[in-house]
Amino acid sequence: MKSIQVNIDHALGSAVTKADIEALSSEAAVALGHVNNGTAAGNDFLGWVKLPTETPASLLDDIQATALQLRKDCEVVVAIGIGGSYLGAKAVIEALSDTFAPCETPVIFAGQNIGEDYLHELMQYLQGKKYGIIVISKSGTTTEPAIAFRLLKDNLEKTLGKAEAARRIVAITDAHRGALRQLATEEGYKTFVIEDNVGGRFSVLTPVGLLPIAVAGFDIHALIEGAIRMEKATAHPGLENPAELYAATRNALYRAGKKIEILVNYNPKLHYFGEWWKQLYGESEGKDHKGIFPAAVDNSTDLHSMGQWIQDGERTIFETVLSVETTRHSVIIPTDEANLDGLNYIAGLHVDQVNKMAELGTRIAHVDGGVPNLHITIPALTELYLGELIYFFEKACGISGYILNVNPFNQPGVEDYKRNMFALLAKPGYEKETDAIKARL
Ligand code: PA5
User: Fold this and answer.
1) For residue 200, which of 95, 79, 48 has the smallest C-alpha distance?
2) How far is CA 114 from the centre of its chain?
3) Which is the closest atom of ligand 1 to the Cα of 201?
4) 66 CA to middle of ligand 1, Å?
5) CA–CA distance, 261 with 246 (Å, rounded to integer)
6) Which residues contact 6 (CB under 8 A, 6 or more apart)?
7) Residue 66 and residue 211 in contact, taking contact as beta carbons nearer than 8 Å
8) Is 236 a catalytic residue?
9) What is the position in ligand 1's atom list of the atom closest to the CA of 199?
10) Torsions phi, psi of 440, nearest 5?
């Protein structure tokens, strides 16, 4: 049975040797134990670890039925959320969608920015359309989605009336706490719960990600099936555990001065997967003035922008390449009699064969240029393999954070900007902070 594969052969060299990785394996095994058994800081946020095998069939059925109802009632569904309440669904939907043909019921996103023009243009786009809303906020108090929801809810209620609007709104939030829970109860929205022990960035395999993905028409059972496979494959210690291997290798590279990891794809459908991965690792590891800086590029596009830096800039980087083995469609490069563009030497090849040579050529060049390369092969962009990939990166993130000796499951740093923003906006309760920040302006 095929599965995603992790290969570190080209990450080894002058910076880090096989012996360095093996030396880290006992730390990695201890870190895996913390993730599996909840024996370290952040252990109240480990609900995602056994989530795939413990997801009840009844929950998947409920999500599927809710998605079907939204698809029946709506031409388009707006998923409102930010960070972990946005990126996972966006990443999976983008990876599985046809680039130019919208899904039967397109899922579009709001609440992931505070763009006035974005929201205006969104409301213009929704004008005259039958639309529904999935509003997602674990805390139920995040400003960006709250603004977007206030606007769209108001718009929907004015168009349909309160009762009918309520039938088109689904809220995904904490079981008891937060403004969104209270609103959902008062207005009678259909709701799903984000469990206390699952942090936002680890929530894509909960209703947070699964409902928008199901509305877009993709197979959430296969996604969970893939995650279950990876839950089993990453359960036990040892470097044959792919999550442990990846976590140990990236930490060995970090200790050797490689402070930046670039997630590289050669498939434009994976752009948002890179965004999801950046949040997962950035928010989990960037603490106590430590942590690998996660960056991402889309090749070959970015070979024409970031390629120079990666090949020849400061040698503080390593790459993790996502390589999709098969394409969904077949496009052959045609022969041209005149051959003015000089491309007849590749006529008859699939476009992907050229893409693969771009990938291989780049990997060799980067390794030669002092950029260690990890390589992850994905048999195809399907729900099953995306489920594997998501769980793989989540598990490796927990292990890696513990090797780094940080709590991978909190995010104290994201509160600072909020405090300043609330102070600047004179939010009630922030009077002292408002005075203090105004004095600095
Ligand atoms: O990973 C996290 O916890 C964050 O990125 C949150 O997902 C993000 O801040 C959104 O929070 P909430 O779902 O509470 O609105």
Assistant:
1) 48
2) 20
3) 1
4) 23
5) 12
6) 242, 245, 246, 374, 375, 376, 392
7) yes
8) no
9) 3
10) -90, -10
Distance 358 CA to ligand 1 centre (A): 37
**Backbone Cα Rg of the chain:** 23
Contact call for residues 47 and 196 (beta carbons, < 8 A): yes
CA 141–ligand 1 middle distance (angstroms): 10
Tokens of 207: 């209703």
Q: Ligand 1 centroid vs 178 CA: distance in angstroms?
A: 13
How far is the C-alpha of 242 from the C-alpha of 5, rounded, in Å?
A: 8
Note down pLDDT in tens along the chain; length 441 residues: 899 999 999 999 989 999 999 999 999 999 999 999 999 999 999 999 999 999 999 999 999 999 999 999 999 999 999 999 999 999 999 999 999 998 899 999 999 999 999 999 999 999 999 999 999 999 888 999 999 999 999 999 999 999 999 999 999 999 999 999 999 999 999 999 999 999 999 999 999 999 999 999 999 999 999 999 999 999 999 999 999 999 999 999 999 999 999 999 999 999 999 999 999 999 999 999 999 999 999 999 999 999 999 999 999 999 999 999 999 999 999 999 999 999 999 999 999 999 999 999 999 999 999 999 999 999 999 999 999 999 999 999 999 999 999 999 999 998 889 999 999 999 999 999 999 999 999
Known catalytic membership, residue 283: yes
* Selected catalytic residue, list 304, 329, 337, 415: 304
Among the atoms of ligand 1, which is closest to the Cα of residue 414?
9
- Tell me the C-alpha distance between 169 and 31, whole Å: 41
- The secondary structure of residue 49, as a DSSP letter, is T
Sheet with 169-173, strands from edge to edge, namely: 107-110, 76-80, 131-137, 169-173, 190-193
Going by their DSSP bridges, the two strands 5-7 and 373-378 should be labelled as antiparallel
Tokens of 396: 């490796």
Length of the chain: 441
Q: Which atom of ligand 1 is nearest to the CA of 136?
A: 13
Residue nearest to atom 3 of ligand 1 (CA): 200
Tell me which residues have their CB closer than 6 angstroms to ligand 1.
82-85, 137-139, 142, 145, 199-201, 283, 411
54, 418, 431, 438: the catalytic one is 418
Positive or negative: CA dihedral 294, 299, 303, 304: negative
pLDDT digits (tens, 9 = 90+) for 71-112: 999 999 999 999 999 999 999 999 999 999 988 999 999 999
